[in-house]
Every structure is written in structure tokens, then in C-alpha cells.
Amino acid sequence: MITVHHLNNSRSQRILWLLEELETPYEIVRYERDPATMLAPRSLRAVHPLGKSPVITDGDLTLAETGAIIEYLSDRYGGGRLVPPAGTQDYLRCKYWLHYAEGSAMPPLLLKLVFDRMAGGPIPFFLKPVVRAIADKAKSSFIIPQLRLHLDYMEGELAKSPWFAGAAISIADIQMSYPLEAAASRAGLDASRPHLWRFLETIHARDAYRRALAKGGPYAFAS
């Protein structure tokens, strides 16, 4: 039996969605973030040394990293579903977006979160103007332009096909869902980018996505 070590409001929600799409049985072990620090509990380190989520166990296997987990589950349990035929352009696109999600899309989103928290955190009053000025400068000169660049790029790519890897949903779309959910929550993604907005509306309407949310809990991204 596959066990998903699931942290609330985390990347592991994508693993639940994938398993629901594949109709593969699994069980969930739940972990809650510290409400003050938003960090994962130490108990996750008993499963994997980094103490991060997602982590799955499947028999003797313990596997971390969302992309690696998605590829493992689709290879072992997918039966050809959610992956374009090997050797096609859509297959290459699927691989590309599977890696792009964490390698390119997430870093500016994480930087924005860090600098937002820096500016709004508990700071001695005499340092607040300096810290906020640094955070504002970092966001205006680098982070926000990078976010716009990536959102515009993704918008343009989804103008070419309904899904990231072509005409059919794939594991690339499951992987890309998290940065787009985060962008909609804290980085200005809205209906002004209609193709990305349509993507979010479409996945939200999928039965498997809704079942995963019912089991794992809704996203509640911190701003």
C-alpha cells in the first residue's frame, strides 16, 4: 500500500491528486505545519532525513521530491495514462514542464514569500524602515519582474494547447498546478491571463482534484 506523508498546504497535495487520477489505493499520514513558523514538524524527519513533504513509502521504498514521486507513480501505476507517447514532442514537453515547475517557476514565488515576510515580520522599530526598503527594492527590481516574465511565458504556452503537454492532461499539469495555485494566491495571477486562469478553473472542476482536496484539505497559501 502506498502511504503519502502529507503536510497541510504543501506540494504533497499534487501527489494525492495524481493518485486520485490513477485510481490507485493509498493511505495518508497527516502532518500539520507549525502555525507560527509554518515549518513542517520534526516528526517528518523520522520518515526522511530532510523532514520535508511530500514523501511516500511503497513497500520498502521511501521516496521524496515531488517530481521524482510523480514519475515513479506514473511509471509503476499509470499504465500509460497521463504521459504522452514516448518519442513525441508532447512527451518532451511533458518532461520539460515537469522540471520547469520547481526549477524555474517556484524560485521567484518563494523569494516573494520570503521578502514579504521579512517586511512584515517582527522587527525592532528603528530597523523597520531599512528592512522594508530592502525588501521593497528586491521585489520591485527583481522578484516582481521575474514573476511577470514567467507568468507571461506560461500564458503564451497555454495559448498553444489546452494542457501544458498538448491536447490531453498529463503529469506535467499536475506538477504545474502548485506554482499556479501559489501565483493566484500571492503573486497576482488572475483572469487578466485568461489561459492560465482557464487552466486553474478546469483542474478545480475535475473530480479527482476535488477528491484529493477533500482528503488532503484545501490550499491556504500564506501571503
What this model shows, in words?
With 223 residues, the chain is an alpha+beta fold. The protein is 55% helix and 9% strand. It is built from seven helices and four strands. The protein has a four-stranded mixed sheet with strand order 2-1-3-4, with helices on one face. Helix 1 (12-22) crosses helix 7 (207-216). The radius of gyration is 18 Å and the shape is globular. The model has no long low-confidence stretch (mean pLDDT 90).
Q: What would the keywords be for this entry?
A:
223 residues; alpha+beta; four-stranded mixed beta sheet; 4 strands; 9% strand
Structural class: alpha+beta
Beta fraction: 5-15%
The spatial strand order of the largest sheet comes to 2-1-3-4
Instruction: Write down the Rg.
Output: 18 Å
Q: Residue share in helices?
A: 55-70%
Order of helices and strands: EHEEEHHHHHH
Distinct helical segment count = 7
Question: What value does the average pLDDT take?
Answer: 90
Count of distinct strands: 4
Low-confidence stretches: none
Q: Sketch the major β-sheet.
A: 4 strands, mixed
> So what's the overall shape?
globular
Q: In angstroms, what separates the terminal alpha carbons?
A: 36 Å
